[in-house]
Amino acid sequence: MSCLISLLFGFGVTRTLAQLAKFRIGRLRPDFLQRCIPDQEDVRKHYEQDLINYGHIIAHDFICTGDPNVVKEGRQSFPSGHALSVAYTFAFCTFLAYFWSLIAIYISSSRISDNRHNLTDVISGFAFGLIGGLFSGYLIWAFEYADNKNDINNMKETEIQSKP
């Protein structure tokens, strides 16, 4: 449960910081012109009045004729929320995998520092545990794969039998 809480809390903080960056930086999305639908007369008028800052006027509301909410969303390109979500989730899960590996190494090495086992005892015990865990994981995967494959084959057979 605490793992889930830390996942959600960290995601919330990361997402909040990203949203603050979106509002502060306000980079335009690649499809901003389709969202904005600029009024050509206003663009021409501002171009003639202020040639130096012409590139900046497209981002202002007064020339956009599109839906204001869609235009507002068009200004929030940086950073990508989808990329953030996926990267955060995979980084968190990867950290957990390495974290448990480090815990296993720490506990194993503590047996040496406590003078309970020799180095070769710990290495061989670690190897036995690692091989057993990998083998068990493989068996579970193989049985699941075989069940799924049988289900697919059974579906194909029933489809063939049901055809006239």
Tell me what you see in this structure.
The chain has 164 residues and is an all-alpha fold. The protein folds into 3 domains: 1-27 and 80-116, no CATH class; 28-75, no CATH class; 118-164. 77% of the residues lie in helices and 0% in strands. It has 7 helices and no strands. Helix 6 packs antiparallel against helix 7. The longest helix has 44 residues, at 119-162. The radius of gyration is 29 Å and the shape is elongated. 2% of the residues are buried. The model has no long low-confidence stretch (mean pLDDT 82). Residues 2-137 form the Phosphatidic acid phosphatase type 2/haloperoxidase domain. InterPro entries: PAP-like, PAP2/HPO, PAP2/HPO_sf.
Keywords summarizing the entry:
PAP2/HPO; PAP-like; Phosphatidate phosphatase; 164 residues; 7 helices; PAP2/HPO_sf; signal; 3 domains; mainly alpha
- Please count the beta strands (DSSP E, at least 2 residues each): 0
Low-confidence stretches: none
Terminal-residue CA separation: 53 Å
Structural category = mainly alpha
Main beta sheet strand tally, sense and closure: none
N-to-C SSE string, H for helix and E for strand: HHHHHHH
Please tell me how large the radius of gyration is: 29 Å
Categorize the overall geometry: elongated
**Number of structural units classed as domains:** 3
How many distinct helices? 7
Mean pLDDT: 82
Content of β-strand: under 5%
Portion of residues in helices?
over 70%
